[in-house]
Structures are given as structure tokens and as C-alpha cells.
Prior knowledge:
Blueprint: H1 2-26, E1 32-38, H2 48-59, E2 62-68, E3 73-79
Antiparallel strand pairs: 1-3, 2-3
Amino acid sequence: xxxxxxxxxxxxxxxxxxxxxLILQQNTNWNxxxxxxxxxxxxxxxxxxxxxxxxxxxxxxxxxxxVDQDAKHYNITITK
Length: 80
């Protein structure tokens, strides 16, 4: 069971690492990026704070988020 949880966490984090790499490669002329993530895609063991801190440190970018309770989304802003 613990291995399954770890595998889901790793898959989720690796997916976003690749996604951010692709976004940053294809979009070089920007100061801020905005996007929304559905809360339901997050594994139970990863919260939005951890997600933002981890990627902020790895990418050397600033991540901010707001919770949209009605739509069950996180509205995320990435700043260079």
C-alpha cells in the first residue's frame, strides 16, 4: 500500500516536472504564467503548499496560489 502511494506521488511530481520543463522551453518571453489546477488531481499525500514550494525551489521561480472553493480549483501564478 505504501509503495502504491509513493508511486502515485512520484508519477504526479514527475509529470509536473516534465510539464514545467516543456512550458519553460516553449515560452521564453514571459514574466508571469497563470493556470488552474483541479484539486481532485492531487494525490492525498501532496498538498498545494508542498507542490508550490517544491517546484519553486527546483525551477527558481515564484509560485503563488489562491483557492477557488466554488470551482474546486487552485489558481496558480508563476513569476520569474
